[in-house]
Amino acid sequence: MQFLRILLVGVLLLAPLPATAYDILVLQSLREKGYDEAVKGVKRECQATMRTVVLSDYAETDITRIMREEHPRLVIAVGDRALEVAEKLRNTPVLYMMALNVKQRPKSSMTGVGMLFDPVKYLSVFDSIGSKRVGVVCDPSKSGAYLKRAQAAARRNGINLVVREVHSPRETPAMLDSLRGKVDALWMLPDVTAVSPATTEAYFLFTQGERVPLVTFAEVYLSMGGAVALGIDRFDIGKQLGEMAQSVLDGTPVDQIPTQSPRRALLKANDGVLRQLRISLGGGG
Amino acid sequence: MQYFRLSPVKGFRVRLYLLFTGTIALLTAAFVFFYVITEINGFRSTLEREGRLLATILAQNARLPLFAENREALSLLAAGTARYPSVLFVSINNSDGLPLTEVKNPKDSGGGAIDMKVPVTSPGRVLSPEAVLLGHAKVDEERVIGQVHLRLDTSGAHERLKKLVAASLAIGTLFWIFVSLLSYQILKRVTASFNMLMGGIEEIGSGNLSSRVNLHGDDELGRGANAINAMAASLELRELENLALQEELLNSMKLEVQEEKRRVMARLIHTNKMTSLGLLLSSMAHEINNPNASIRFSGHIIARIWQDVVPLLDRVCREEGAFYLGGLPFQKARGALAENAANIVENSERIARVVQGLREYGAGDGAGLRPNLVLNDAVAAALSVLACQMKQDVRLRTSLGTDIPPISGNKQQIEQVLINLILNAMQAFPDGRGEVVLTTRHDRDASEVVVEVEDNGVGILADTMERLFEPFFSTKLNQGGSGLGLYISQYIVAEHGGRLQLSSTPGSATRALMILPVGGVPL
Question: What pLDDT does A89 receive?
């Protein structure tokens, strides 16, 4: 099967392709539901012609050859792997979305929509539930920049972020233990070091033992004991990126378009947890 | 070599009881066995389940400390688990198999232990933050991060096994005793009717047909008892009938024996008479023969002497003239003397023949039948015997066939039959005048010879005719008749394979027929 796939890719890549007339090359890392939703959002907002290449369908993709032969005006990278491939391009603007490991470079022809909300959105949630001491566990090498923004916003909102830095997932339980009695709420960041599958339940054990709410970044954690989740809307991220693509196609230089955070947040709460903690989203409990 | 064998149990109740109690004992033993096995397996399974549960709980609780390699927290967890009484040893190892903490329970394992190892895994179906944000599907993949090792004490299982076996055996034995007693009572009640039926059957079978099975009821045994009672009644009735028939038969046999005894006695008497008669005849013959021989000799001498004297006397007569001899003139006396001398010899010879006939009759062999018996010779012999009985007024006319073949028979016995028949015929004339006709002939068609004696006397009455062949029956008992003549004659003729027939017309005639087979006595 693998051989057939390689053969098919080879035939596709080596065959003299007709000169295609599409504007956007969409590089999708995987065939995943989340990526598909985002791509649909792009197509909703941007009417330009597109070709989608799912990288996981091929063993190796010669993006340079595709660019040389097909000359798309814009590349949209969906996911970290697609972004990694698209980073090789120098002359074609690249828009990215659904990527977590974005490395910002100065004067880059690359921009997009990140995966993290503006910290203000989370802080407003903490504010709404009346938490003033919010514990945060994170890896500074991964979430340091975002943490700085959050700390600055927190200071503005009068919220004290009690930060514990971890450099390995094994440190997370101990760091969480160190937060006992020191926080009113716990903020779970999408930090792969701080939040690993092996240590995820430590957050919920902590919040259960301390009887403090856990504010997280995805709805799935609500069923595990999270109190409030600010989830992303992947379709809307796609739409957001579609608007950016349309703007680029309309002539706006990419370097003039700043990286954006997801503009639409889906607020979900576990009513049972909130009821047990006697917390309402309207004010402190 | 002597073999010892247990005598088979014959009682139906006992056999049924032994079978029942044996079956109950087997079932109880099997139940106890399976119960103990099941309980022990259940106890072991429970122990294993408990150990696995403890290990699983410990693995769950130790997941985060193990991931964080928090030995202090792991020690606390292990110590908490080791407080369970059945736990001998607790160890929590990392993914490389190295123990991060160990707790040993000092108590003695004694009766054995089982080891329980449960892997410690990271929670499955929990995604990384990236996957959650990107909307990746959940993958049910658990990663083993360590292992919990528990050693459980199973000595309690052995103690429990001992107690369980003892209790089960005690309960099983009590149950068996109770069921055995109960079954005995039930069998006793159930088989009472059966025993009663068997007792009745044995009583009837021993011969007491008047006995009855005193069992009532509509069940099978009751119906069986009724049927046996009916059968016994029927047998009793048959038995009574048989007894009556036996008694009747016995009486008949007694009568027959008595009758036969009488017949034998009569025959013995007759034989004795005949023997005496034979002796008498022999004696008489001897006494008569001697003088008769002398007479015959004298007659011959006289005839010879006369033969020699006649010429002399003729010359004297011629010379001297006629003279008288014995009051008769010589010429008459000459012939008369010769004639008388001849008569003396003739009659003497006749006497000799008669005496010889009497001797042969009296000393005859009545047992043997001899071939080539000429019937007419027997008739002549009988007539010679009866010559002196001939009466002047009774005329005897004989018509003897010439083509009569010889037969097998006893001449004396045939003569005796003929004498009886001729005498009876000669005595059938009340006034002493009549005619007797004796005829012999050969019936070729029937291959028989027939002697017919017919008289024209008074005939025989019908009542008398029916009893003619009875022994000692005679109409002339006052005239010296023995009543055995026809009886013996019929016996003799029957012994020769023939038959004796009498027919009579009362007041006119009587005819007697002796019919004998030509070919001899049939076997």
Answer: 84
pLDDT band at B125 (very low <50, low <70, confident <90, very high): low
Collect all residues of chain A within an 8 Å Cβ-Cβ radius of residue B68.
170-174, 199
At A105 the pLDDT is: 65
ipTM over 0.85: no
Q: Where are the alpha helices (DSSP H) in chain A?
A: 2-14, 33-45, 63-70, 80-86, 119-129, 140-157, 172-178, 200-210, 234-249, 271-276
Taking the alpha carbons at both ends of chain B, their separation in whole angstroms is: 63
B372 burial level (CB within 10 Å; 0-12, 13-18, 19+): exposed
**Contacts (Cβ under 8 Å, ≥6 apart) of B476:** B427
> Looking at A6-20, A110-124, B245-259, B486-500, which range is the least confident one?
A6-20
Gap between the Cα atoms of A237 and A244, Å rounded:
11
Instruction: Establish if B108 touches chain A: CB-CB under 8 angstroms.
Output: no
For the stretch B320-358, pLDDT in tens is 888 888 888 888 888 888 888 888 888 888 788 777 766
Give the CA count within 13 Å in the CB-facing half-sphere of B210: 1
For residue B161 the two structure tokens come to: 């096994």
Tell me, letter by letter, the H, E, C secondary structure of B122-191: CCCCCCCHHHHHHCCCCCCCCCEEEEEEEEEECHHHHHHHHHHHHHHHHHHHHHHHHHHHHHHHHHHHHH
Cα–Cα distance measured from residue B128 to residue A220, given in angstroms and rounded to the nearest whole number: 11
- Residue ranges of A 7-66 with Cβ closer than 8 A to chain B: 30, 32-35, 37
Beta strands B324-325 and A94-97 are unpaired
pLDDT higher than threshold 60 for residue B419: yes
Residue A151 is given by DSSP the state H
Q: Do A232 and B133 touch (CB under 8 A)?
A: yes
Across the range B243-251, mean pLDDT stands at 94
| Phi, psi of A58, deg, nearest 5 | -120, 150
Mean pLDDT to the nearest integer, B260-279: 72
**Identity of residue B17:** Y
- CA distance to partner chain B, nearest, from residue A68 (Å): 30
Q: Is B222's pLDDT higher than 70? A: yes
Q: Does B109 touch chain A (CB under 8 A)?
A: no
- The nearest CA of chain A is from the CA of B62 a distance in Å of 12
A282 within 8 A of A128, measured Cβ to Cβ: yes
**Cβ contact, residue pair B132, A37, below 8 Å:** no
> Does pLDDT of B491 surpass 70?
yes
Look at B122 and A198 and tell me if their CB atoms are within 8 Å. Answer: yes
The answer to whether the CB atoms of A100 and B134 lie below 8 A apart is yes
Nearest CA to B452 among B397, B372, B370? B397
Please report the DSSP string for A20-38 in residue order: ---SEEEEESS--HHHHHH
Lowest-pLDDT choice from A114-123, B252-261, B350-359: B350-359
Q: Does the distance separating the beta carbons of B123 and A198 come in below 8 Å?
A: yes
The overall pTM is greater than 0.90:
no
The pLDDT tens digits of the residues spanning B37-74 come to 888 888 888 888 888 888 899 988 888 888 888 888 89
Report the residue from B65, B68, B135 with minimal CB separation from A32.
Answer: B135
R_g of chain A computed on alpha carbons: 21
